[in-house]
Amino acid sequence: MKVPRFVTAFPPISIDYSPRKFQVGEINLLKVSFEIPEGFDIMAHKPSEEFLVPAELILESPEGIIVGDPSYPEAKEEKFDWSEITLRIYKGKFDVDVPIEVAAERSGRLELHGILSFQGCTENQCLPPKKQDFTLSFDVLKTIGTNP
Q: How many CB atoms lie within 10 A of CB 130?
C-alpha cells in the first residue's frame, strides 16, 4: 500500500489476543498482538528521545483480576530523512505479553478494557499522539477442561 506523502490521521491498528480462556488461581500469560498498517510505524515503548511518545498498553484491573506489568518486544531501529537521529520503532506486527491472575471467586465471561497509546509516523512525518480503545473477552475456567 502506498501511503500519501502527508496524512492527517493514523489508521486503526488491528488487535488480536490469546488465550481466550483463563484458568482460575493461576498466572495466565496473555499475548496481545498488534498489527500496524503497512506504510506506518509507531514509537517503541522505550523511544529514542524523551520527547517522543512511547507505545504503552494499559489494561484495566477489575475486581478479582490482577493485571501484571506488560513485557514489550525489542524495538527496530530505523533512520528517516526527516530525523537527525535513529528512531526506535515498532512496525508490522508486534506482541506484548501481560501476566493475568484470576481470583478463585471469578468464573464465567470476563472482559478487560484496554488502551494502546502511541505516536505514529510515516516515512515522511510523525502524527499527534493517539489512543486506541479496545475490549478483550475471555472465559474463566475453575478447572481445566470445564465449562465456565
A: 16
Three-state DSSP class for 69?
A: coil
pLDDT tens track, the chain, 148 positions: 566 567 888 999 999 999 999 888 888 999 999 999 999 999 999 999 888 899 999 999 888 889 999 999 999 999 888 788 899 999 999 999 999 998 877 778 889 999 999 999 998 888 999 999 999 999 988 765 544 5
Range of the domain at 83: 14-141
Query: CA dist 51 to 29, 33, 43, Å?
Result: 31, 26, 11
CATH number at residue 64: 2.60.40.1250
Q: Per the structure block, which three cell numbers stand in for 94?
A: 508486534
Residue 87 amino acid letter: L
**Residue 3 covered by a domain:** no
What letter represents residue 137's amino acid?
A: S
* 108 within some domain: yes
Grid coordinates of 8: 492527517
136 assigned to some structural domain: yes
Measured distance CA(113)–CA(95) in Å, rounded: 17
Helix (H) or strand (E) segment spanning residue 34:
strand 27-35
Query: Based on the structure, what is the number of domains in the chain?
Result: 1
Residue 9 lies in a domain: no
